[in-house]
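Handout, section 3.2

Students often ask what a structure token actually looks like in practice. Rather than define it abstractly, here is a full record for DUF1232 domain-containing protein. The first block is the sequence as you would receive it.
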Amino acid sequence: MATRSRLPLLRSFATAVRSATRPGSPGVGDRLAALPRLIRATRSGQHAGTSVGRLAMLAVAAAYIVSPVDLLPEGALFVFGLADDAMVLSWLAAAFLTETESYLAWERGHAAPGAYAATPGTPFPSASATTGWPQDSVPGSVR
């Protein structure tokens, strides 16, 4: 019965990892950098793709993983003690990948028209790249 309850968790984790490692998807660094923005946008109500409660669950799961306090101690139960940590870690990884993927897609879709959504490592574009007009002939400009 315990194996049956772990299968959806493993399937969810595998799906999240597969989507996170596809070409063109944001890397872990980009996702970690987006986390403060995700928290701010969720708390302010701008991003409705997740809830403050879900973000709190992510924080609690991360604290559980790094905490020396454990529901099933490894010292006494060996492999079984690691199983609860592995399940929490796999849920945390899948949830983190899913939430950041959703947020980054939302963020790209809500950029102002003509705004440049900078990605790390890319130079700021010229005016012609952001407006479609050559730098010398921006509409409404006087030479």
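Discussion prompt for tutorial groups: The longest helix spans residues 79-109. How would you have guessed this from the sequence alone?
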